Amino acid sequence: MIRATIENINVYEGQVVTLSGWLYNKRSSGKIIFLQIRDGSGFIQGVVVKKEVSEAVFETCKSLPQESSFHVTGMVQRDERSALGYELLVREVEVVCRAEEGYPISLKEHGTDFLMDYRHLWMRTPRQHAILRIRDEINLGLREFFHEEGFVLVEPPIITPASCEGTTELFEIDYFGENAYLSQTGQLYAEAAAMAFGKVYSFGPTFRAEKSKTRKHLNEFWMIEPEMAFVDFEGNLKVQEEMVSYVIKRVLQRRRRELELLGRDVTALEKIEPPFPRITYTEAVEMLKNAGFEFEWGDDFGAPHETHIADQYEKPVFITHFPTSMKAFYMQPDPTNPEVILGADLIAPEGYGEIIGGSQRIHDLELLLEKLRAENLPEEVYQWYIELRKFGSVPHSGFGLGLERTVAWICGIDHIRQTIPFARTLNRVYP
């Protein structure tokens, strides 16, 4: 017996194989039953012809409820009408678990709130399955890019004693009688590791307690955060555009079928190659004013502003040199103009907004202390971070990429909640 997976079914054309999976759907035309089979790697149609199987097999297939699990044995044959290109001519069926009747998610239209309540089942459907397979590919591509570039993976703590971003948007927890917080970012800890290993990255969950309901926000999301010693602002941008291009090429090569299932315009993704265009924050302000937006220097960009700027380009665009007052205390001011920072946001095309934020970091001890004091941040809590500037400080840079926004952009989907297996939003902590 040959055990196969749907993803690699093309290898077995003309052979009899066994698939282990679930019944996604079925239909019948009397003497033929069409089974839609999924096995976690993909979807395939199984054809059950009454005269070619035993009566018991035919009756079993006829009566099986949706999402029953089974082993299906049959001949792999080419079928040009299928998106997969193959189908399975069923010979035997061995039921593992006969599902109950009344599966909650039918093939009719359901509201998003209903589907999110059944997220544990919704992810079984072809569209959600494709999104999460692409997420997996992006995840792996990011890790491989940094591994190939000589970065070391480090894991910062999720429980931290203070804010990393200097905001009040924190989830506070009781840590054995002391106040602690769920981490907003692993960046400060990655900076410490960069002073030990030169080039590092962290990849893990981060938490923001902002009460946002937009389609671009989650309260728990994943970030990849590289930090690089002896790398300046320009070098930082170069790594970002090379990383994004690398990941997109990988997804196009390995998950094109899933992109097509989602209806994604892959020609737009094929244009994403370095270098990416750049404009300064000041230039972006002028662009918005010329387009009729009411916007002043020092204002923060909202979704309409980012979308208008992105629409002027076919590739992601860097917006650089933001006002110092808008950004976190650790960002290096531009020596030629201390009112702006040596940092940038990377704005994705097609209205997906910021996917990366990064900067050169302050490496001068006195300047860092000045920034901490200006924002009334407690020096004792940041003492370990301050010590990085006392012992072998060097110019260094880093950035953070939000995984879910990146998945949404590459997949071309409307809402970020579909890009993570179980979304945590302002009004959702179930399932």
UniProtKB/TrEMBL annotation:
It catalyses: tRNA(Asn) + L-asparagine + ATP = L-asparaginyl-tRNA(Asn) + AMP + diphosphate + H(+). Gene3D superfamilies: Bira Bifunctional Protein, Domain 2, Nucleic acid-binding proteins. The keyword DNA damage does not apply. The keyword ATP-binding applies. It is an enzyme of class 6 (ligase). Residues 132-421 form the Aminoacyl-transfer RNA synthetases class-II family profile domain. GO terms for biological process: asparaginyl-tRNA aminoacylation. Its EC number is 6.1.1.22. Homodimer. GO terms for molecular function: asparagine-tRNA ligase activity; ATP binding; catalytic activity, acting on a protein; nucleic acid binding; transferase activity. Keywords: Aminoacyl-tRNA synthetase, ATP-binding, Cytoplasm, Ligase, Nucleotide-binding, Protein biosynthesis. It is found in: Cytoplasm. Signal peptide: none annotated. GO terms for cellular component: cytoplasm. HAMAP family: Asn_tRNA_synth (MF_00534). Belongs to the class-II aminoacyl-tRNA synthetase family. This is Asparagine--tRNA ligase.
